Amino acid sequence: MNFTRSDFPKGFLFGAATSAYQIEGHAFGHAGRTHWDDFAATPGNVIRAEDGARACDHYHQWPADLDLLQAANFDTYRFSTSWARVQPEGRGAPNPEGLDFYDRLVDGMLARGLKPAATLYHWELPSPLADLGGWRNRDIADRFADFTQILMSRIGDRLFSAAPINEPWCVAWLSHFMGFHAPGTRDIRAAAHAMHHVLLAHGRSIEVMRGLGMKNLGAVCNFEHTSPADASEASLKAAATYDAIYNRWFLSGIFKGTYPAEALAGLLPHMPKNWQDDFPTITQKLDWFGLNYYTRKLIAHDAGPWPHVREVEGPLPKTQVGWEIYPEGLHHFLTTTHRDYTKGLPLFITENGMANADVVTNGAVNDAARIAYLDAHLAVTRRAISEGVPVVGYYTWSLMDNYEWSLGYEKRFGLVHVDFETLQRTPKASYHALARALAR
Ligand code: FCB
């Protein structure tokens, strides 16, 4: 890597991120069924109809996985907790094995000197709640508050940080408007409801955690740098609409108590009743904000119904999932988020990384492309810091190859290669490079 720990401010934290359904193995430990199991069981949704039943078997192999984090000289680990593992029915009685699992996991991090950074929800909604309308149903916010109470009463005393929901855009828009993720809905009214309820649930969860006396609470959103694909007035407008829905809706909701006009232009008629009244809950004070950043999009006008947006393929080098590599976009979001919304709040990069077609050859994985990707994004991070943006930590996605949602197991985002037949872990060159850069 082109940097070492000493090139960053003292106390800057480095970590890796994962999520529950993508690594644990949901068939183990009496976890409940989730809408990802249902989505994956429906032909055409996921490559080879793969699901998270076994995944990386982290449920059993977690001690060795935490050893890998420690040996890479990471300071912190961003993990998530499965709602359906803790409350198999989504409400009511908790599953003691689920609570025990997260309890052991947190203690395991502390024993290895890793700061536990928890995300409560990274997408595996319990199926019984999906039956009741899931994120379309306002009741989800109170159910999520109950889940928060149950889980955090058990592990909240030992966490370094906590965030309620990973990437509200994916929970709401990708899953209810575009239909690419569970529950695979393509419906504007469902999407508008989910766009609002996801933030209401965020707010209710923060309230509960404050009530428990927890500190260092934040939110994690994802961002895609957006540019018009051509100079036409119509494409400028399309890009602004895309940017409002993707990059500004959640920030505006949480930090300004309003939604962007370009997004309301289409969503207003479909919003849940009295949505404006929920902003006191949504805008509660946070202690930090997390940005997930991977790529950019070129957007052109589309003649169909609102939002009139169409993605156009760009010319930049692409990763294994076809995402253009554009580090400047991360610099853009760090500076604009600080300037326009968070205004001094500590910022974390909570996810950043790339998929690569990695193969093990003689026990080694040469992922030079990933080393270059991480280097480039950490370079613009340093630049933002030198310009006064309070970035305090960086988590790479992901510790190990895992279940990449509708793309199944073939897209590899890990620092550690996983053979999905044998479950053998093999640290890649990027893992070794990071371990050297982060040596204390
Ligand atoms: C993010 C998700 C994460 C993973 C990466 C590649 O949007 O949070 O689970 O899928 O993308």
Can you give a write-up of this model?
Helix content is 40%, strand content 16%. The chain has 440 residues and is of the alpha/beta class. The protein has a single domain (5-437), classed as TIM Barrel, CATH 3.20.20.80. The strands form two sheets. Strands 1, 2, 3, 4, 5, 6, 7, 8 and 9 form a nine-stranded mixed β-sheet that branches. A two-stranded antiparallel sheet has the order 10-11. It starts with 12 loop residues before the first strand and ends with a helix. The relative contact order is 0.14. The structure holds beta-D-fucopyranose (FCB). Beta-D-fucopyranose binds at residues 19, 22, 166-167, 170, 222, 292, 351, 397, 404-405, 413. Beta-D-fucopyranose binds next to loops.
Shape: globular
Bound molecules: beta-D-fucopyranose
Q: List how many beta strands DSSP finds.
A: 11
Class computed from helices, strands and strand pairing? alpha/beta
Q: Could you tell me the radius of gyration in angstroms? A: 20 Å
- What assembly state would you assign to the polypeptide chains in this entry? single chain
User: Average pLDDT across residues?
Assistant: 98
CA(first)-CA(last) distance: 15 Å
Q: In the CATH hierarchy, what is the superfamily?
A: Glycosidases
Topology pattern, helix = H, strand = E: EHHHEHHEHHEHHEHHHEEHEHEEEH
